[in-house]
Design goal:
The chain has 134 residues and is an all-alpha fold. 57% of the residues lie in helices and 0% in strands. The chain has one domain. The longest helix has 23 residues. The protein starts with 5 loop residues before the first helix and ends with a helix.
Length: 134
Amino acid sequence: MASLPLTALSREFNSSFRPSASPMVGTAASPHLSVLEWSIVAMAEHDGLSSIREESRYVRAIRSFFGFKRPNRLANERLEILRRVAVLAWHYGWNVPKSELAQFFAAGFTSDEYELVQTSIGQARATRSRKRAR
């Protein structure tokens, strides 16, 4: 699991990181996701961890025998990477494997967008747990 701070991860995986640039200086645009990307994050709440794992031949045979359907992967690779990270974030919080983060950053997402997704998921989880407590 990833245990490096976000700044170290972004330096390691994001080639556009410039350590000499201060985050407060300049006109940096605030991180944002499109409506489609937010819908992928919301959809990932209901996806299980099995949706991101590769199936063995045995599991495929059992699934075929009993007629269970496996959810399809997204056709857009960038959105599929976002979905995978969101599924892991829904289940494990900030403990997303470094390999998944590397793919996330390689797909063009930034560490600010990762933090935005994690913060949003954290707020949704807190709201859900407060509703259950009532």
